[in-house]
Amino acid sequence: MNPDLILLTDTIHTLEGTTEPAQAVAVKDGLITAVGSRTDAPDWRAAGTQVLDLGAATLTPGLVDSHIHPVLGLDMTAGRDLSGARTLTEVRQLLHAEAVAAGPGGWVRGWGLDPNVFGSSRVHREAVDDVVAGRPALIRLFDGHSALASVRALELAGITGPRVFEQAAEVVCDDTGVPTGLLLEAAAVDLVERHAPTEPFATRKSRLAELLRRFARSGLTGGHVMDLGAGSLELYRALENDGDLPLRLRCAAWCMPGSGETEWAELAMMLREGGRRWSVDAIKLFVDGTIDNGTAWLFEPDSYGQSTAPFWPRPQEYAEAVRYFAGRGIPTATHAIGDAGVAHVLDALESLPSSTPAAVHRVEHIESIPDNLIKRFARLDVVASMQPTHCTHYSRADHSDNWSTRLGRERADRAWRCQDLRRAGVTLALGSDWPIAPFEPLPVMADARLRRPAGRPDEAPIGPGQALTALQALEGYTSHAARAAGLFHSTGSISVGKRADFTAFECDPLTADPDELAGSNILGTVVDGDIQFMLDRVE
Predict the structure, then answer these.
(1) What is the pLDDT of residue 17?
(2) Do residues 220 and 65 lie in contact, with contact meaning Cβ atoms separated by under 8 Å?
(3) Which residues are within 8 A (CB) of 291 and not within 5 positions of it... i.e. 6 or more apart?
């Protein structure tokens, strides 16, 4: 066997469906060659084998975030972090400081703005125009689908009134047709974004490298990247050439409204792109927006009469796009938050001809759905990809938040139905949707179990009946994440022949209290049998 590496530790959760205890795993050429006990390990060792004893650590298959935006996130996190601001006064103070730092005429950027700070008032540039003092400003709201622009930014972009888009986007205007500064969905935000300064490639590369290192230190060995924006391919190639890809990245290229078979064929060609640890493997589509800004697709309007329209103005064209890609065996992942949006995705997948090649198709987010859609996920074998911290960070048990107020109590009570999906036998992949929410996986896994923010025991849980078990939360980042990518044959469990991707925990994720788990350390990650980082190494 002559392994390159042997890892020893007190507890290994293999997630391969057996109850046999394990404390040792051997690796050769990036693959697992043996799993057994500490007493087995001496027989595996050969000259040159590196032996790493992790002591009391717990080893699991490598954690994979099933929904992240690394490159897009570089742009979306430009400027001041507003995610911790809970009042409009705090937001204004932070933006004032950013404006001072930007200097006269400089762009003021911010991100993570929570619409709840506006209370019952509308989101309007009047709340920021005075503090940015005539500077152009673009502030991203936390949902990633909307932004607030200052009057000067609107002037630079030539926005003086409503615009017409190929997708369900909007330049929000008041009753007199004057823009309020609120921009809904990417096409509207891009009108202003394209006028903001861009950073040099070298700077973006350096920022991305540091971000991916932070991902690895948090315990991640992989991520499902739900975008492939301009410059992404070049950045991934450059980082891999420099040896700076510390985790696997599986990317999905966006397919947007207004496209047709010519554009779809070009997207399909992109699936040939990739390197050792990154690849383009799927197509990402959107069928709606978000509940918080009134662009989700609901069967019944929200409390403001919004969220009634699909992202594709002609939804049958969405179904045609899905049929095109599925017919070529290409996996699809569709952003669908509202009940009508989720139903339309399932309709499109159910309408596929029986001769359609096998491929994994998934729905991203799934925030509020009725019982009948749970059953359809199971019957159609469609993957559910969800982000527990969207629930715990941005809604409240008393329904006083913007999201719940828009939906009303009945629909808010059937939200983020993680446990119902698992009980129905649905593959449930978990993730963060960074930069919409923090990427650290241990707090996400803890929140999935607690249904409240980890470390805040005084907060009431939101839909506690939908809490996951410790095993289900771990599976969401390991075996179910692998299934969501169609890769369980090669990863997602610690089994002979699979990739040697591991995460080492200070606390056992199956037995530790979730609040304790969220605050504990990741001791190391291994990808392809290569140690990406390791704390307290003992050899």
Answers:
(1) 78
(2) yes
(3) 298, 302, 307, 337, 338, 367, 368, 403, 406, 407
Measured distance CA(455)–CA(256) in Å, rounded: 39
Would you state the pLDDT for residue 376? 97
At position 55, the amino acid (one-letter code) is G
* 180-195: burial string, b at 16+ Cβ within 10 Å, e else: bbbbbbbbbbebbbeb
Residue 539: the pLDDT is 42
For residue 16, the model assigns a pLDDT of 87
Q: Determine which helix (DSSP H) or strand (DSSP E) holds 237, and give its type and residue range.
A: helix 232-241
Pairing relationship of beta strands 220-225 and 179-184 according to DSSP bridges: unpaired
> How many C-beta atoms surround the C-beta of residue 534 within 10 A?
17
Per DSSP (E only), the strands in 381-536 are 383-386, 428-430, 502-505, 522-527, 530-534
Query: Across-strand partners of 323?
Result: none
Largest CA-CA distance found in the chain, in angstroms, rounded: 80
Length of the chain: 539
pLDDT of residue 538: 43
Say what the alpha-carbon torsion angle 203, 244, 482, 333 is, to the nearest 10 degrees.
20
Give the pLDDT confidence of 236-267 residue by residue, as tens digits: 999 999 988 999 999 999 999 999 999 999 99
Q: Which residues of the chain fall short of a pLDDT of 70?
A: 19, 536-539
Instruction: Tell me how far CA of residue 278 lies from CA of 225, 283, 439, in angstroms.
Output: 10, 15, 19
The residue assigned the tokens 């703005």 is 113
Instruction: Find out whether the peptide bond into 514 is cis, omega within 30 degrees of 0.
Output: no
CB-CB contact of 65 with 480 (8 Å): no
- What is the structure's pLDDT at 536? 67
What pLDDT sits at residue 21?
82
Residues near 110 by beta carbon (within 8 Å), at least 6 away in sequence: 79, 80, 81, 82, 91, 94, 95, 98, 137, 138, 139, 140
CA distance 340 to 338: 6
* β strands within 37-94, DSSP E: 50-53, 58-61, 63-68, 80-81
In terms of Cα–Cα distance, which of 286, 296, 367 is closest to 322? 286
Strand 146-149 versus strand 108-113 pairing type: unpaired
Q: Where are the extended beta strands (E) located within 114-258?
A: 137-141, 146-149, 170-173, 179-184, 220-225, 248-255
8 Å CB contact between 505 and 219: yes
Token pair belonging to 96: 């004032």
- Alpha-carbon distance 4 to 23, whole Å? 17
